[in-house]
Amino acid sequence: MAEILTVLSAVLPVFLITFLGYQFRRINWLTRDADDSLMKVAMNVLLPCLAFSKISGNEAIRQPENVWLPPVIGFFCIAIGMAIGWMVRRYATGETGPKARTYAITIGVFNFGFVPIPLSESLFGENAVAVLFVFNVGTLLAMWSLGVMLLHGDLSTAWKKALNAPFLSVVFALIVNATGLNVHIPEVVVTSIEMLGMCAIPMSILLMGAMMKDYFAQCEFRSAFRVCWTSILLRMGLLPVLMIVTAKWLPCSTELRQVILIQASMPAAMFPILISRMYGGSPVIATQVAIATTVISLATIPLWLHLGAAFLGLQFSDSTSFPL
User: Fold this and answer.
1) pTM of this structure
2) How many folded domains does the chain comprise?
3) 268: which strand partners?
4) CA 223/CA 226 separation, integer angstroms
């Protein structure tokens, strides 16, 4: 029971902040006009600062297996998810066109940023967060290469999207960490970066909640029952089992096992909605899958984290407590 409460104490704040974002959009405190500017600040400034502050000077990232293996695992986790979605796409959508291709991509791309970052820090500590950022190098490459290839086939512009500020900040932080240059950075700069990084997750989760309000209005879920239940079965059922079993089998570090467990429990991401709009897919299908899995994840995330931690022999951080 104590472990369930520990997991809930980490999961519930994320959903509560998401709900606040949803309500802020509903009462027009967080307007659509503000979305682009706030997202640019979050993606190009706040998240890179968070990544740099967690990676530079981190002893766990000085282990070679925590540098090269996480991106490889991240890439193949996305690729396998897309492959499974591709096999089920016709049954789920009733066609093989843009809707089916979007379905396959959305099944493969789990929420790899806004939700798992605070969960990783709350449940496992800063080392897990640092490895998560390195892991996400592979997820970003898979999303912008395989995802765009399945939708459109135009990789020339997709690779430019993959080389974005969060990706480059991780690479830069890895170089700083490996060379020990972090000790030469003035304390005032380090503190400023840390303060900016602390703003990244709350702002991003509020934005996610606000955008979910818009997506709900665009979707007719009664006509997409098969899309929803198959996506829940695959993204929140089959794929977590495969990822957790892989984490058990792989000769990897404890931090990487922690990251794989967190990512295995995640719902479908919102990013495929953007990709489908840019490359001729179906934003409605991506929205239906993302929202259906996100809603059900309120129940499944604590379940998978509890069962997965027991199966992998992982311990949650002692600092995580449930406010009774």
Assistant:
1) 0.82
2) 1
3) 110
4) 8
